[in-house]
Amino acid sequence: FHDSGQHLLGLINEILDLSRIEAGRYELNEEAISLASVAEDCHRLMKMRARNRMIAIHEMFEPDLPRVWADERAIRQVVLNLLANAVKFTPQGGEIWIKVGWTASGGQYVSVKDTGPGIPEEEISVVLASFGQGSNSIKSAEQGAGLGLPIVKSLIDLHGGTFSLKSKLRIGTE
Q1: Which residue stretches of the chain have pLDDT < 50?
Q2: Under a CB-based contact definition with an 8 Å cutoff, are residues 69 and 75 in contact?
Q3: Is 38 exposed, middle or buried (0-12, 13-18, 19+ CB in 10 A)?
Q4: What value, to the nearest 5°, has the Cα angle with vertex 26 and ends 21 and 27?
């Protein structure tokens, strides 16, 4: 019963977040933050869930990255949503990599890459749309609302960043 309540609360919060973003009412509280520290915290939060499914999470962080100007809560939500998806869809014994580093243009990036089933090319626009779920999500035991990736994309857009989703069937998603 407690789990159902938690699930419902999570769902409501996602819907509220997305509606605030879409209404232009999501206030960014930006400060100098370390992307690696945020990614490390999120990894720690997801470690048990991954371990229970025999999934290994690896960190690959570029050393000595300067801080970036961003909303820490929003970036934490982005990384947690991406990690939760990776853990949800990666089969037992699979692997996930969290990377933080420099972009070619001198910015920084956070990447979450998994060895899950991948997303068919024609479904990428579906999983990025609010409430959109790909066929793997529909077949999966853990149902979500299909809001994780739209929230990620919206929060990255609010920061003036770029969100890219790359996926190969039977190989994984980044």
Answers
A1: 141
A2: no
A3: buried
A4: 155
Question: Given this model, what pLDDT does residue 27 score?
Answer: 87
Strand 95-102 with 68-71, pairing: unpaired
Token pair in block for residue 82:
């991406």
User: What's the token pair of residue 17?
Assistant: 């977040």
Contacts of 100 (CB under 8 A, 6+ apart): 35, 36, 39, 60, 61, 62, 65, 108, 109, 110, 111
Per-residue model confidence (pLDDT) at position 144: 62
CA distance 156 to 163: 6
pLDDT on residue 22: 77
User: DSSP class of residue 125?
Assistant: H
The type of residue at 52 is N
Rounded Cα distance between 137 and 143, Å, is: 7
Note whether 119 and 127 are within 8 A (CB). yes
For the chain, what is the radius of gyration of the CA atoms?
A: 16
